[in-house]
Amino acid sequence: MKKVLITAALFLAGLTTTAQADVEAIKQSFAKSIPSVKINSITPTPVLGLFAVTVGANIFYVSEDGKFLLQGHLVDIAARKDITEEQLGGIRKQAIANIGEDNMIVFKPKIHQHTVTVFTDIDCGYCRKLHSEMDSYLAQGITIQYLFFPRAGKDSDSYKKAVSVWCAKDRKKALTEAKNGNDPEPKTCDNPVDEHMRLGAEFDVKGTPMIVDEKGNVFPGYLPAAQLVEAIKYGLNPPKSENPEDPKAVN
Questions:
Q1: Is 151 a catalytic residue?
Q2: 78 with 183, same domain?
Q3: Residue 120 belongs to what domain range?
Q4: What is the pTM of this model?
Q5: 92, 123, 124, 213: which one is catalytic?
Q6: Are 51 and 26 in contact (CB under 8 A)?
Q7: What is the DSSP string of 171-210?
Q8: Strand order of the sheet with strand 210-212?
Q9: What's the number of domains the chain is made of?
Q10: Annotation marks residue 198 as catalytic
């Protein structure tokens, strides 16, 4: 029995040493080929010889020798599970937490049920539609955390409006006024708008609004309050109801 335990310990030690060697090979490959990239973590995947490399809010897959890189989603076919998306959800959740509520404009309901983070552009039509229905979201118990993502870039009017809203005495009032088409009084101050935009770029925001739920799941585009609650609970493909009177039921 003692011999078996010693053999097992030596085997596990060998695996650990091999894994460490693979991690070092990947680090050296990145340092040589793309030195500007900052690696957050390197972890093994269920696929033999394939490692997940986390860079910011993104995941890449790299061979154990560091010579080959894959970009895409790793899916467990048998379990019907998107392994990459699960991991990305956790990364997004932590990245949003790192921004902190103090660096967001937050609308809170009286009774809290869910929290979503919304990348918004003051001049975006559907962003304005979402904001105009704020009472509906609050009635559903949804906390809305806003991050600015002016799509036209840093030198745009939308960017300047975002900064002015942040620098206003009453940010929530100023944001509501701006989304109603009333330009805020031009102001400048220390603000997190650039940080919001950097995070949006890491999250690959392609349009606004983009909603991220409390699990880190992404819902691109506008969703009415009731539909957003369903998406938070079930994803964008909710289960079909067996109740024939339920509007989600299929005849």
A1: yes
A2: no
A3: 94-234
A4: 0.80
A5: 124
A6: yes
A7: HHHHHHHHHTT-PPPP---S-SHHHHHHHHHHTT--SS-E
A8: 105-107, 142-148, 114-120, 210-212, 218-220
A9: 2
A10: no
What are φ and ψ of residue 148, in 5° steps?
A: -85, 135
Query: What is the per-residue pLDDT across 198-248, written as a single tens digit (0 to 9) for each?
Result: 999 999 999 999 999 999 999 999 999 999 999 999 876 655 544 444 444
167, two tokens = 């620098």
Convert the pLDDT of each residue in 64-107 to its tens digit.
Answer: 999 999 999 999 999 999 999 999 999 999 999 999 999 999 99
| Confidence at 22, pLDDT banded by 50, 70, 90 | confident
Q: What is the pLDDT of residue 234?
A: 87
Of 34, 63, 85, the position where a domain reaches its end is 85
Asked if residue 72 and residue 106 are part of one domain, the reply reads no
Q: From the candidates 22, 121, 123, 213, which is the catalytic residue?
A: 121
Pair (58, 120) in one structural domain: no
| Residues 215, 113 share a domain | yes
Active site (annotated) includes residue 189? no
135 in the same domain as 40: no
Q: What angle do CA 206, 209, 213 make, to 5 degrees?
A: 100
- Whether 167 is catalytic is no
Q: What percent of the chain has pLDDT over 70?
A: 86
User: Is 73 strand, coil or helix?
Assistant: coil
Marked catalytic residue, from 22, 92, 151, 167: 151
pLDDT number for residue 239: 52
Catalytic hit among 22, 92, 127, 213 = 127
On whether both 38 and 124 belong to a single domain, the answer is no
**Residue with token string 């404009």:** 105
Q: Same domain, yes or no, for 111 and 181? A: yes
Give tens-digit pLDDT for 48-59. 999 999 998 899
